Amino acid sequence: MSNPRVLRSTRATTGARPAPAAHDPVTGLPTTAQATEARRASDGPLATLRAAFLAAVARDTPGSDLARYTVVLDDLLAWAAARVDRVVAAPAAGTLGGIAFGPGTGSTGPRWCIRPVRGEGPVVEVLPSSGVAHEATRERVRALFNAHSRAVLGPEARLRIGFGALKNPAARAALLALLDELLGGTAAPTLGA
Q1: What residues contact residue 19 under an 8 Å CB cut-off, 6+ apart?
Q2: pLDDT band at 180 (very low <50, low <70, confident <90, very high)
Q3: Residue 115 and residue 92 in contact, taking contact as beta carbons nearer than 8 Å
Q4: In angstroms, how far is the first alpha carbon of the chain from the final one?
Q5: What residues have CB less than 8 Å from 41, skipping those under 6 apart?
Q6: Among candidates 52, 37, 169, 192, which has minimal Cα distance to 122?
Q7: Where in the chain are the domains?
Q8: With bands split at pLDDT 50, 70 and 90, how would you rate the model's confidence at 154?
Q9: Can you say how many angstroms the Cα of residue 79 is from the centroid of all Cα atoms in its chain?
């Protein structure tokens, strides 16, 4: 319920009612400017992938985590939308709501996916068949993930990090810088930040 005093004072100074907060159509939660921009950048196929991912995550996500995971997802989608010339997104095979990312047709490079994992929450996984075949690159990815996550990845573990760790803006920035580097960009990840 709106506070009538706030509405009266707002009308007195502006002559109009305050604009209602925008709400995410999937989660029903208020959106941030960053999330709104990510959705605008992800019209079309990315918006469809986003909705499917959030619907899959919502089934197993308690409380306020869904809103935090949505911020992580929107950052990843905005990053991919800004690199449409180098990154293609598609539904991940065999994963309800998962999104696979990789280089464009005829290109080589890293492949990764984001997918909901029952009982663990959503994860970002750098796939072994991609451009991280060299052990030195795998070790850099592993070190970055270990620096930002409570779960320690061993030498034979899958290269993945949970959205829980990526709720931290520094971890998200480091992941995006790493993905830029793997794509051949100039950004370098900040390890241990």
Answers
A1: none
A2: confident
A3: yes
A4: 42
A5: 77, 78, 81, 82
A6: 52
A7: 27-183
A8: confident
A9: 9
